[in-house]
Amino acid sequence: MISYITRYTDLSSNRFLLHPPPMQNELLSSWLIRVALAHQTMPWSFMNMHFPEYKNIIFSRDVDIWAPDEFIEKLAWKSGLQASDILNLTLRSYEGYLLERVRSNGQNFFIAPIISRKRRNIGYGQKYCPICLKEHPVYFKKEWRLTFYTVCLEHKVYMLNRCPNCESSVTLYKFKHDKGFVQCYGCGWHLSQVGSLMTASDEDIARVSRLMKILDDGYVLIGGKPVYSVAFFQVLHQIVKIVKHFDLVEFEEIDEIIGEAEKVVFNLDVWIGKLLEHPKICPSHLMQDLKLVPYFYYSVLSYILENRFK
Q1: Residue 66's closest CA among 95, 90, 45, 89?
Q2: Predicted pLDDT at 310
Q3: Who contacts 89 (Cβ-Cβ below 8 Å, separation ≥6)?
Q4: d(CA 304, CA 275)
Q5: Which of 90, 119, 152, 259 is the most buried (most CB within 10 A)?
């Protein structure tokens, strides 16, 4: 029976009695919930007792991004894990691969935000694969927070980002009864119920696979030359903004938008000229909001613009 604590005991100086090992690519929030449930305690209560200095904060923020170093160090002491292992559970582990720095406040491109209000998520940043949630132990993965990770590469189906029964967003740390945290807090629907899942297209599977490989490798070859993955994703995000703003695709589905943007990035010398033929796109749009312009992108832009305005 999972306990609802009404009177907190200060366990700040205590180690965890039980600490299930993190699974491969598991999210920090998912692991924290599994640790709490191993102690037969609701996650919110468990965190408040062990981390009173962060009372009512840990799950009211996006802990997978927010988790400060002091919290990680204390969590490492309590669990017996290395601080580096716990940091690897956070989305900050994508620093140097997806972004130079993952910001605790503000938007991080290609990381879907978790928006919490009154102890519930009101955004749709947490995706999941129902088939994955049938496995044991059940847990949520880091890549499920990436906006371009729209396909489960293991099961070849499109990811979901809401309850298929009532369309509520996923709030991991809130659940009813003893069904565990893989359920919709709104209606009790078990998120591992497959229902009518859509098989992903070969094109979408291939694109997600490519982007994940770039993220894992830390670089990609463009025109036979290596490009730092952070630079690649920075330019991809820039082109995504242009594709969305100027309605360059027929349907505003994220797969189609990123797919179109990816074509541009891999063939800049061809597509930049085509973009500039659009009556509403001007050169400033191509570098708007970029504080530092990656060289592989800047060199193509410079060459095309120099020849265009001769």
Answers
A1: 90
A2: 57
A3: 22, 26, 27, 28, 31, 64, 142
A4: 11
A5: 152
State the Cα–Cα distance between residues 135 and 285, nearest whole angstrom.
46
Taking alpha carbons only, the member of 137, 72, 75, 82 closest to residue 104 is: 72
Phi, psi of 304 (to 5 degrees): -65, -45
What pLDDT score was predicted for residue 193?
A: 87
Residue listed under structure tokens 């074509």: 263
Amino acid at 283: P
Give SS3 for 179: coil
Quick: pLDDT tens for 98-144.
999 999 888 899 999 987 776 666 778 999 999 999 999 999 999 99
Tokens found for residue 90: 């956070």
Taking residue 307's Cβ as centre, other Cβ atoms within 10 Å add up to 9
Amino acid sitting at position 231: A
Highest mean pLDDT among 59-63, 197-201, 216-220, 281-285: 216-220
Mutual angle of helices 202-217 and 229-245, in 10-degree steps: 140
